Structure formats: structure tokens, C-alpha cells
Amino acid sequence: MAYTYWKSGRHQDEAVFELFFRENPFGGEFSLFSGLTDCLLFLKNFKYTEQDVAFLKSVLPSTTEEGFFRYLLTMDASGVSVCSFPEGSVVFDRVPLMEVNGPLAVVQLLETSLLCLVNYASLVSSNAARLRLAAGPKRRMLEMGLRRAQGPDGGLSASRYSYIGGFDMTSNMLAGQLFGIPVSGTMAHSYITSFSSLEEVRHRTLAPALGEGPALDLVSLSQAWLPRVCSLLQVTHSEVNEGELAAFISYALAFPRNFLVLLDSYSVMRSGVLNFCAVALALCQLHYQPIGVRLDSGDLCGQSVELRRIFLACSSRFQVAELQSLLIVGSNNISEKSLLEMNGRENEIDVVGVGTHLVTCPLQPSLGCVYKLVQVNGAPRMKLTEDSGKSTLPGRKAVYRLFSQDGHAFLDLLALREEPVPAEGIAVQCRVLGGWEEETVTAARVERIHQQCFTQGQISQTLPSTADIRTRVQAALSTLHPGQRRLQQPERYKVAVSEKLYCLLRDLKNSLKN
User: Fold this and answer.
1) Is 39 within 8 Å of 80 (Cβ atoms)?
2) What is the pLDDT of residues 390-428, one digit of tens each?
3) Which of 1, 182, 337, 493 qualifies as a FRET site for 487, CA 20 to 30 Å off?
4) Where are the beta strands (DSSP E) in 341-427?
5) Any idea what DSSP says for residue 183?
6) CB–CB of 402/422 below 8 Å?
7) Exposed e or buried b per residue across 478-490, where buried means at least 16 C-beta atoms within 10 angstroms of its C-beta
């Protein structure tokens, strides 16, 4: 296409494209806009190298003129400007997330890259936000999907955008290093099963946490506690796996202030919890605070309730208050559905770890963003198509969000840029997308959404940190009516066009049909 534009002398025509999606993901009523920072950095550095052009020469038809390749070597984004929603905004179907303006050939070539950078980022952050809503505000969320992600790039993006969407931590150390995301993790089953006896614990001593007194033998301390725990829980000592105990002790020696272990390598209630309590009590004896346990199989809710009972019983019997505040982490194929089911049952799960159902978005693998031409040289353009749902809205637009008296957003209004800003407290006539029914609305507050973020080849705003974008997400979600945040059968959020834009759409559609 770029060659055709160049050969016909249209490559410098001023064009405007919009990036948007047609349906809200996951059967919900909102999405999050993510990936803008990556788009701006890409645009800032956009150019073709001599190596790039040499490759293009090798694959384009031999009839391609040499002047076109010289043109490509001069191409950059210096003539491109972008306005968009702020990253981390709540967004809706058919509303332009970004408007890209510049030379026709250049902005056409940007299409695939911009779609790639926005599609997955917005999908994953939206999925994370839904999982966050399903889990509730008190339960902490750990992203642990790197092993399940679509390659290392997908894994790193998933970690970043899951945090933006509302997760609290990641197990991806590189994401923590690059984006300042809190990192956390426990241990693998293979670590535990690699031990078979206490003889494999070769470094046995641990100094008290307060620095007073000599280092003590943690193996001996744990062995002394284990029979007392077995007696309390009425489990015979012979049922407890010695290799698991050795693994827990070794971990405690390495991480005495971060003692959080996996319980289900053998049997949670006949081995794992007993070994954990024995080592945890030994750590408390040395004035360390154990962190907790992770469950990765079975009935997570039922097991968590029983574990909490055991921890409180040990705390009471042995007069060790530190056991009252232990965390219980649940993992094992956690999904939005299982989180909602978890909320309907009694449970004591403080933290959930989510991997596959977060980073792969199995319920909807793509957001379906598109990038469509809306204006060339000041003249509006639209795609008519055989499918009315895929028709586009012509012309350059301003996007306004209208709020009610209670502070909730109730409508996004698309208007032509030259139209006056809707006034607060004044009735506005519009047409709701879908059925094009007329509606009169009055807003208590009107917010113009699009911001200029890239101007003539330069980033024109301070790039927010990952944490700043995450904060914006939570603030934006709070402006939605609870019915529109609802995960199942949400209330419809309306998107409308001004009467003037509707008339332009109608007239242009009629002219294209004739």
C-alpha cells in the first residue's frame, strides 16, 4: 500500500486514523486502555534502516522503483501526531482510543504495530481488572503466569499489564526489575521432593532474629516441636514425610524471614501442615515471624478453613501469637469463575495466585482492536461494508464523558471536532450507537477525554510509571456505576454520537450508496 501511495503521489496526503474495538471483552461492559506508553516509544524511534530496506528490496516485486526505497530511508514519525485516552482509562466499544494523524503512507504503515501494542496490553489488563473484582478488595493477588504465557515477550507484558489491571505482585523477577512491580513467590514441588531425609540438611544452625545469644540447631528445634504438633492434631509421627520436613527446614534456614511453603507435595493434613507448624514454631522460638503456606490442589476453600483452625489451635496450645497472622495462599488453575465460587463459600484464603487464566485470556484470546481511516485531506472517509456492525464513523472527533450528579459516568459522546463542548447542566440531543435512537441527556459534569500525547514526532507528555497507571485504573473503575462493573449480566453503558455527526454519517452513507 505504501508503494502505491508513493507511486500515485499521495504518500504525503494528510490522513487521520482511529484505533478502537467493536465489543467489550469477556461479556463485560468495560475495558481498560493499556499499551500507550509502548506506542509512544515505538513512534519516537520509528524509522527504516539500510538493512530493513535491503530486505524489502529482496521481497518486493522487481518492478518496484528505486526512488521508493530512497523514500523509505527518509521515513520517520516526525510528521505524526497522536491524541488518545490517558493510559489506564476505562474505555468502551466503538469509542476511539487513539487518533493518529500524519502523512498517509506513514500512518498507514503504523497500523499493525500500534494494534499489536494495544490489543494484548488492553486485553490482559482488562482480564486482570475482572479477576480483581471477582476476588474482592481485601484478598491479595499474585500473578504467576510466566510459564504459561505466549513466549517471553508475552510473559513480560502479561506481568506488567496484570499489575496495571489490579494485581498486587508478580513472580516474574524481570518484570519487578524493569517496572517496579512487587515480587513474590514460594517454592516448587520439585524442591520439596528433592529431599528424602534430615541428613540432607547440612547447615543446621540459625542465629536468633534479635541477635542475642548463640545460633541454635533448627533441625533439633523442629524435631522437638513435631511430636507435640502430632499429638495436638492426633496424627502419628510415622505418617509425616521426613524429606518434606528437611525441605522446610532448609528453606527456613535460607529464608527465616520469608518462610512460606507449599503444603500439598504429599498430604496437606497428614504431613504438610504438621511439618510446617513444627518449623514455624521453631522459627518463632528464635523470634522470627513465619509468613504462611500455599495450597495448590484439592478443595482450596475447605482446606483453608481447616488450616486456619489448626493454626489457631497451635497458637492457643503453645502460647505463640505469631501463628494467628499466618497467610494462606491458594493457587491451582484459578479463574474468574472459581474466584466467584470461592466468594460463595466459607474460606480463609488471603492471597490467590493466578497464571494460565490470567495471561492467556482463554475466554477471549483477542480484544479485536481495529485501525480505520476517518479523514483524508480534511474530507471525511468511512467504511460502509456489507455488515453494518463493521461500518466506521467518519471525520475527526472529540470524545466527551458525561457524568451524573452521583459522580458516575453514564455516556460517552462522540462529536465532530468543530462542535462546541457540551455544557454542564444543559440538555444535549444525541443518537445512541446500535439502534440510533434519539436521546436527550443532561450532564452534571463533562470531561473531554482525548489528550495530545505525541506532536510532530515528539512525545508531548510525561510518561507515567507503571504504578501511576495502576492508580489511574482504580480511580477510573470507581467512576463506573456498580451495575456496569458487574461481571455477569452487567448494565449497558451507552455510547452516542452528536446530531451533527449522525447527519454526516447518514449523508456520507447515502452518497456512497448512490
Assistant:
1) no
2) 889 999 999 999 999 999 999 999 999 999 999 999 999
3) 182
4) 351-354, 370-376, 379-380, 397-403, 409-416
5) B
6) yes
7) ebbbeebbebeeb
